[in-house]
């Protein structure tokens, strides 16, 4: 039975019209002799988004006029500000915009009520409150930071407008709040009209992001196994991209309406992938003779088990993304997934068994640990130590990949290991920790306080009639860009957009709007001006600030053209207002460049010292464990049931905090990284792998799986790292002594009495040896990063031969 063509909605027909018209014009141009690369008419890809935003802004302005709202220009301004391409981003920004506005309105009313006739106390308190909002905003993430900034400059708007008559402060606050809510509602309405249900494409976006990250990580790990050049640089770049994708997961989860806890599982997937890449910075992975595998097979000789294992892992990494995403469950569309979530099925997994590819990962990890357990590690056998280190790192890496694969399937709703059926709610949570820099937060708060105080002083001394606008827009620009990685560049882009908006506002205020008497004519005047940003293409050199300029253009065009409900802006008022706004933007740029300019090197050093402090913290053991450890026995089990297990460091939290520091530094890093910045980034990842090895040793201690002499040696190592992690040579010697104790445990009387309760199993022996060797290598290679008095200079590009440490 044949089916007819699909029925398109009116919106789909309208959106397809530019593509059809462009195709027709392209054929006409080709017939006339024009090059296809230069069509007669170009419809930019952002035209649909700009048209949607303009519709929302004009709707907000059209509702603000008949509702007799004070300052009706703020409603379309907020609609333009909260309109973003993604539905989750737009909804999140709108939510925090409303919360920040409510906080700012309450603060503005309270400050004005308590200090009505004390200007020399009122203005400093206002500047102090604005700085406090930016101080707390520096500790937030995503649009929570925007909410704190909005609370700061909303307080300034309400309080400064109430200076002529303090009795009107309540009505000014209510007017501000209603304008904000109206702008947010119009932005959401336009998004629904032009886009429809955002959840329809959210699953596919989530799947594409995770699939791309998974495939890139497998490719980089395969390159590391082949010992390709610049693998560590590629891994560092990919971790930065993964963290950027991780920040977008929150918005996709909003579009999915929290179904199946896709957000926490996606966060866990990306964290596991980043942890796998960080393993590259702790030890080499190029196993000898792996490159010559085909020659060994053709010669017919015996292939060593290690070579066979690494070759299998390399092949598995090449086909893992395709096999993982080629299963029927992951290929299902959004409609099928939604139907599965609302159906009566007992489970969402397409099959009742774990995929075979995940079982192969677990099998390869067990083989790596088994091979490492068979190798004898001694003080003289350097080659054997290298082999054990590579095998254990490979086992840990495969464990991270397996965790990432399982969490990925759970985030898409298809994994039997997590309770995702409609009758069993998924309660998985992933700690999303963001590193906080109190010094940077304090500097940001002081910057904004200084800007508000300086402009307020100018207004108070000169009695400038437009001084309120001057102070207000200075606070707006400083609050918007104070927590930005590049505030000076952002404020410069805002100035460029403001100047472009001033040019368009001149045409509107002086030429077009005075000739219009009805709102429909005003729409025809505003619409071409609002669509202009869609036709501007940022270049490579101007892309850093052009995006901000395009946003600032629509942000500023309404305050420059809308005066009141029954008033029209004349030429004199236009020039006075634009002059105050431009001077406010220039003062903001000056403040950002003079007052506490951002220093990347100082910030990187603060991050390094913070990581070393936490490294010392995870090396700390409870007093009950230290007191219970004697020369010939381990503590009794009740020591582990109490404070030890309660204070045992978590790998998940350590990874989350370490990636938070890396994200903070990489966001503030320019595109062209210097050697010193790369050294800091590499050092953070190496220290992250060092902490993972330390945590693994502590878990072995907690499980009573180490004999007493070996536990004493490990305890001495942890004590040295806790006291002075900068003395890397002394800590490396203690790691070597622990390896000697491990060697003694595997020889002599221990081998003769395998039934002893404190004898190490081969798997535990491999884990301990791998952790100690990884700790020793990181301590010796990254001594410049770990030394608290000597910051790093340049990154280590390749792994040098392992030095011999006296044991």
Strand content: under 5%
Number of separate helices: 32
Q: Write down the overall geometry.
A: elongated
- Compute the gyration radius: what is it? 31 Å
Assembly type of the chains comes to single chain
Low-confidence stretches: 1-15, 28-43, 328-354, 416-424, 630-646, 748-757, 796-807
Characterize the largest beta sheet: strand count, sense, and whether it forms a barrel.
Answer: none
What is the total tally of β strands?
0
Structural class: mainly alpha
Helical residue percent band: 55-70%
* Overall pLDDT score: 77
Distance between the termini: 80 Å
Describe the protein's architecture and organization.
This protein is mostly helical. It has helices at 10-32, 47-64, 74-82, 87-114, 119-137, 143-161, 169-195, 199-225, 231-255, 262-278, 293-299, 305-325, 328-331, 334-342, 356-374, 382-411, 438-462, 467-481, 487-512, 519-531, 543-557, 571-594, 600-618, 623-628, 637-646, 651-667, 675-702, 708-723, 728-745, 749-752, 762-781, 783-786. Helix 2 packs antiparallel against helix 20, helix 8 (199-225) runs parallel beside helix 10 and helix 8 runs antiparallel to helix 12 (305-325). The termini are far apart. The model is unreliable at 1-15, 28-43, 328-354, 416-424, 630-646, 748-757 and 796-807 (pLDDT under 50).
What topology emerges from the helices and strands here?
Elements: H1 10-32, H2 47-64, H3 74-82, H4 87-114, H5 119-137, H6 143-161, H7 169-195, H8 199-225, H9 231-255, H10 262-278, H11 293-299, H12 305-325, H13 328-331, H14 334-342, H15 356-374, H16 382-411, H17 438-462, H18 467-481, H19 487-512, H20 519-531, H21 543-557, H22 571-594, H23 600-618, H24 623-628, H25 637-646, H26 651-667, H27 675-702, H28 708-723, H29 728-745, H30 749-752, H31 762-781, H32 783-786
């Amino acid at each position: 039975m044949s089916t007819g063509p699909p029925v398109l909605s009116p919106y789909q027909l309208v959106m397809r019209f530019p593509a059809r018209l462009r195709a027709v014009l392209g054929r006409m141009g080709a017939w006339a002799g024009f090059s296809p690369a230069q069509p007669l008419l170009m419809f930019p890809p952002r035209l649909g988004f700009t048209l949607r935003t303009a519709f929302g802004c004009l709707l907000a302005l059209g509702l603000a006029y008949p509702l007799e709202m004070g300052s009706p220009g703020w409603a379309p301004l907020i609609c333009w500000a909260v309109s973003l391409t993604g539905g989750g981003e737009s909804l999140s920004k709108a939510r925090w915009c409303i919360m920040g506005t409510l906080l700012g309105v309450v603060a503005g009313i309270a400050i004005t009520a308590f200090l009505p006739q004390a200007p020399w106390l009122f203005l400093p308190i206002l500047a102090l409150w604005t700085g406090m909002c930016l101080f707390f905003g520096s500790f937030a993430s995503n649009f929570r930071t925007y909410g704190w900034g909005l609370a700061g400059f909303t307080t300034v708007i309400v309080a400064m407008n109430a200076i002529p008559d303090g009795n009107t402060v309540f009505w000014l606050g209510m007017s501000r709040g209603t304008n904000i809510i109206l702008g947010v509602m119009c932005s959401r309405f336009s998004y629904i009209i032009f886009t429809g249900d955002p959840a329809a494409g959210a699953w596919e976006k989530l799947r594409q992001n995770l699939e791309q990250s998974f495939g890139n990580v497998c490719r980089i790990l395969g390159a590391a196994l082949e010992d390709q050049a610049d693998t560590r640089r590629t891994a560092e770049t990919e971790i930065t991209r993964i963290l950027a994708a991780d920040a977008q997961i929150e918005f996709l989860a909003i579009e999915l309406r929290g179904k199946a806890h896709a957000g926490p599982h996606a966060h866990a997937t990306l964290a596991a992938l980043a942890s796998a890449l960080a393993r590259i910075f702790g030890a080499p992975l190029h196993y000898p003779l792996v490159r010559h595998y085909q020659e060994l097979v053709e010669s017919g000789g015996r292939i060593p088990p290690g070579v066979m294992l690494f070759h299998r892992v390399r092949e598995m990494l090449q086909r893992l993304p395709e096999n993982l995403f080629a299963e029927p469950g992951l290929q299902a569309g959004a409609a099928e997934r939604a139907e599965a979530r609302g159906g009566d099925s007992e489970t969402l997994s397409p099959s009742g068994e774990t995929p075979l590819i995940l079982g192969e990962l677990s099998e390869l990890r067990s083989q790596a640990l088994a091979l490492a357990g068979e190798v004898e590690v001694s003080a003289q056998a350097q080659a054997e130590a290298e082999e054990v280190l590579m095998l254990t790192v490979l086992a840990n890496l495969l464990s991270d990949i397996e965790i990432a694969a399982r969490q990925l399937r759970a985030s898409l709703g298809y994994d039997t290991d997590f309770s995702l059926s409609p009758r069993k709610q998924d309660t998985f949570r992933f700690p999303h920790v963001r590193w906080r820099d109190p010094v940077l937060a304090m500097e940001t708060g002081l910057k904004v306080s200084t800007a508000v105080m300086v402009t307020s002083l100018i207004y108070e001394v000169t009695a400038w009639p437009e001084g309120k606008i001057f102070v207000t827009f200075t606070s707006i620009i400083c609050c918007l860009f104070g927590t930005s990685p590049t505030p000076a560049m952002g404020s410069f882009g805002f100035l460029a957009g403001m100047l472009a908006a001033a040019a368009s506002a001149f045409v509107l205020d002086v030429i077009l709007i005075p000739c219009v008497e009805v709102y429909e004519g005003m729409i025809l005047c505003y619409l071409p001006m609002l669509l202009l940003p869609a036709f501007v293409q940022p270049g490579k050199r101007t892309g850093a600030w052009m995006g901000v300029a395009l946003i600032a253009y629509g942000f500023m065009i309404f305050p420059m053209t809308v005066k009141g409900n029954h008033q029209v802006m004349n030429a004199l008022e236009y020039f006075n207002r634009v002059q105050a706004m431009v001077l406010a933007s220039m003062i903001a740029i000056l403040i950002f460049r003079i007052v506490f300019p951002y220093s990347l090197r100082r910030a990187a050093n603060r991050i390094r010292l913070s990581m070393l402090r936490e490294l010392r913290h995870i090396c700390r053991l409870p007093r009950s464990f230290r007191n219970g450890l004697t020369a010939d026995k381990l503590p009794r089990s009740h020591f582990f049931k109490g404070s030890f297990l309660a204070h045992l460091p978590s790998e998940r939290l350590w990874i989350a905090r370490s990636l938070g520091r890396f994200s903070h530094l990489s966001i503030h890093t320019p595109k062209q990284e210097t050697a010193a910045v790369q050294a800091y980034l590499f050092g953070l990842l190496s220290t992250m792998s060092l902490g993972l090895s330390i945590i693994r040793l502590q878990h072995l201690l907690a499980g009573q799986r180490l004999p007493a002499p070996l536990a004493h040696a490990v305890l001495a190592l942890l004590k040295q790292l806790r006291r002075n992690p900068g003395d890397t040579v002394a800590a490396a010697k203690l790691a070597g002594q622990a390896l000697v104790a491990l060697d003694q445990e595997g020889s002599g009387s221990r081998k003769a009495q395998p039934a002893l309760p404190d004898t190490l199993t081969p798997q535990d022996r491999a884990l301990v040896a791998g952790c100690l060797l990884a700790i020793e290598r990181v301590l010796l290679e990254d001594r410049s990063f770990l030394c608290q008095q000597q910051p790093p200079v340049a990154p280590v590009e390749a792994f040098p031969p392992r030095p011999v440490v006296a044991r």
